[in-house]
Amino acid sequence: MALENKTIIDSVVEEKEFLVNTRRHLHENPELSGEEFETSKFLKNECQKLGLDIHNVDGTGFYAILDTGREGKTIGLRADIDALPVKENNLNLKNNRVCKSKVDGVFHACGHDGHMAISLATARILTKHKDKLNGKIIFIFEEGEETGVGIDKMIKALEKEKIDAFYSNHLVSFLDTGKIYIGDGPVMAGCALVDFTIKGKGGHGSRPDLSISPIFAAANVLTGLASAWANRVDVTKTVTLGLGSINGGSAANVIPDTVNITGTLRYFDLEEGNKAVGILKKVGRLTTEAHDCEFIANKINVVASPVINDLALAKLARKSISSVLGDNYLAYDSNWFASESFSKYGSLAPSLFALVGTKNDIIGSGAEHHNEYFDLDEESLYYATCSMVKFTSEYLNNN
């Protein structure tokens, strides 16, 4: 029999102080992708206090197993543990922060501090009530989500565990605190990295005719891409082209040899994403050749598939979460164009990704992710933990 709603709510309320204190500790002590040594040590220590069976993965990632001692399904609950190379502002959108990073230039600007606190609080609650549960719960702490350095190692390590389903949530700044979005199908975008160089022939700015300017070639490539996106990408399957940098030259009177352009593509339909990659390469190559320059594709390829929710798990999640929190807590049509390594867990078993709101205009949370003003409303930790505990309980005890 699954945990009763009152038991879940009372348990999460009891964990509120732990949730807040843990989140603040992790926020104040962030570590970059692949360097989460103290973070990993802290998380393992908390798991050891609960008697969980810890399995190290090459690097800083690991997973911890709670075995109820009864036959049943196995569910993986995932949290990411890395911070970003972003300098944190003393303010959020409105007020002074309740806590601030102690590491200059390193900042939990995406909510991973909250994700770790939620997973630990969930582990504490489920361990306390494991006599009412069946099967196994695997708490996954993934290294380097922001750079992708940990996901493949984690997937390989988890293959032997025969997990039946995966669940994770992400605190998001575009939903109000208390709102939870559990969509059917794609909920986060896939991503393709874009990095190409246009090589010409440098020379003196007074005689451009004796040079081959990669700058004009680059300008025409960008114009051609804008036209291609308007005319060749399926309007019902949106693909965004976000170019983040263009670098070439360093002086007004010197024509450079090369121009480098970088960015990303985002998409919810993998086939259309692959088509867009082909369009970008073709436009870049042919336009560059027309200017007698060379097109060098340093990296133009898909690096992440869309995060796609399993329909049956999404239905169960909406039903279970609305039963403990109420229907008014469910949000609709909130797909996110950001990308996530969580998509790869779907290669092992059906997976579910919930978006949990953390926007609160009164306290000043709601800035974009990866932004110096990004902040969490700590009240959102309560809703995320309720959701994770409830869904896990329902899944394990639902035949």
Automatic annotation (TrEMBL):
<dbReference type="Pfam" id="PF01546">
    <property type="entry name" value="Peptidase_M20"/>
</dbReference>
<dbReference type="InterPro" id="IPR002933">
    <property type="entry name" value="Peptidase_M20"/>
</dbReference>
<protein>
    <submittedName>
        <fullName>Amidohydrolase</fullName>
    </submittedName>
</protein>
<dbReference type="Pfam" id="PF07687">
    <property type="entry name" value="M20_dimer"/>
</dbReference>
<dbReference type="InterPro" id="IPR036264">
    <property type="entry name" value="Bact_exopeptidase_dim_dom"/>
</dbReference>
<feature type="domain" description="Peptidase M20 dimerisation">
    <location>
        <begin position="194"/>
        <end position="273"/>
    </location>
</feature>
<dbReference type="InterPro" id="IPR017439">
    <property type="entry name" value="Amidohydrolase"/>
</dbReference>
<dbReference type="InterPro" id="IPR011650">
    <property type="entry name" value="Peptidase_M20_dimer"/>
</dbReference>
